[in-house]
Design a protein that fits this description.
Layout lengths: L5 E4 L8 H8 L4 E5 L13 H14 L4 E4 L11 H21 L3 E4 L9 H19 L4 E5 L12 H10 L6 E6 H6 L7 H14 L5 E6 L1 E2 L10 E2 L8 H8 L9 E3 L8 H12 L3
Parallel strand pairs: 1-2, 1-10, 2-3, 3-4, 4-5, 5-6, 6-7, 7-10
Antiparallel strand pairs: 8-9
Helix pairs in contact: 1-2, 3-4, 4-5
Bound molecules: zinc ion and manganese (II) ion (2 copies).
């Protein structure tokens, strides 16, 4: 896997540091983790011991960078003031946890405006990000993830993401994580080299290639423009191999982490399979 900076999302069951042994087992050079149980608001505070176990395990596994992904409960676009407040507090806490562990990136879903309109939703997300930065400090780079546009979720179009970025004060520490399944489900046809190139050109024009800091590499169980978010194994879905061939050979993204979020069992055999598939596409 020397030439491919790729890995997968890893479970933190039994302790956050345990993600590294799993990552090593699955041949990952990089991993993504949750910073706590992703379906709960509360979490035990991290201790010095957690941090030292994390550092030792990371060093032993030789895995870097680590990406953190925020909890699914967080919705910084929520029109409900109580949910917005709770989400903002939880997000600030996640930034602090990432900072404490020395994790450089925190991936965030822009959230759902829940029928209140994208314009208002976008304003709320940007306001929350500015506030979170003021409180949590400068260490962690926030990565906004594009979405499939299910329901009232923001971030289906590059224009939405650009709109949020433009309202953020500290542009240095905010970037984008592009999810290939979400791109395709949102209607960006990356199945051919021509489609891949025009999609990336549009991204470059509206957002800027340098803002792209990570990929989620997932094939899609649903067809182009379905706006349904269902991941599947690389080459087994509606996207097919060509898009991934273009991606892994795109020299602009050589040093950008590529993370699988595909289905798997406890022995992680599927992660090894998908990573081997990606590597086989390298020219
Ligand atoms: Zn995500
Ligand atoms: Mn993703
Ligand atoms: Mn998804």
């Amino acid at each position: 896997m020397e030439d491919l900076l790729a890995g997968a999302h890893m479970s933190i069951a039994g302790g956050i540091y345990r993600a590294f042994e799993r990552g090593a087992l699955a041949n990952c050079r990089t991993i993504q983790i949750f910073l706590k149980n992703s379906n709960r608001w509360e979490a035990k505070p991290l201790t010095e011991q957690d941090r030292s176990l994390f550092r030792k395990a990371q060093k032993a596994a030789g895995i870097r960078p680590v990406l953190a992904h925020d909890s699914y409960l967080i919705n910084l676009a929520s029109p409900d003031p109580r949910h917005y407040r709770k989400s903002l507090d939880a997000f600030i806490e996640e930034m602090k946890r990432a900072d404490f562990l020395g994790i450089p990136y925190l991936v965030l879903h822009p959230g759902s405006h829940r029928g209140s309109g994208s314009k208002e939703g976008i304003q709320r997300v940007a306001r929350a990000l500015n506030r979170a930065r003021d409180i949590a400090g400068p260490a962690v780079t926030i990565l906004l993830e594009n979405t499939s546009g299910q329901g009232h979720c923001l971030g289906r179009r590059f224009e939405h993401l650009a709109d949020i970025l433009e309202r953020v004060c500290d542009r240095e520490r905010i970037g984008i994580c592009l999810d290939t399944c979400h791109l395709f489900a949102a209607g960006y046809d990356i199945r051919t080299e021509k489609g891949y190139r025009s999609t990336m050109r549009e991204f470059g024009r509206l957002i800027g290639i340098k803002t792209l800091k990570a990929f989620h590499v997932n094939d899609s169980k649903k067809d182009l423009g379905s706006r349904v978010d269902r991941h599947c194994h690389i080459g087994h879905g509606f996207i097919g191999l060509e898009a991934f061939r273009c991606l892994v050979n795109d020299r602009r993204f050589k040093n950008i982490p590529k993370i699988l979020e595909t289905p798997k069992g406890p022995d992680l055999q599927e992660d090894r399979m998908n990573l081997a598939t990606l590597k086989s596409l390298l020219k």
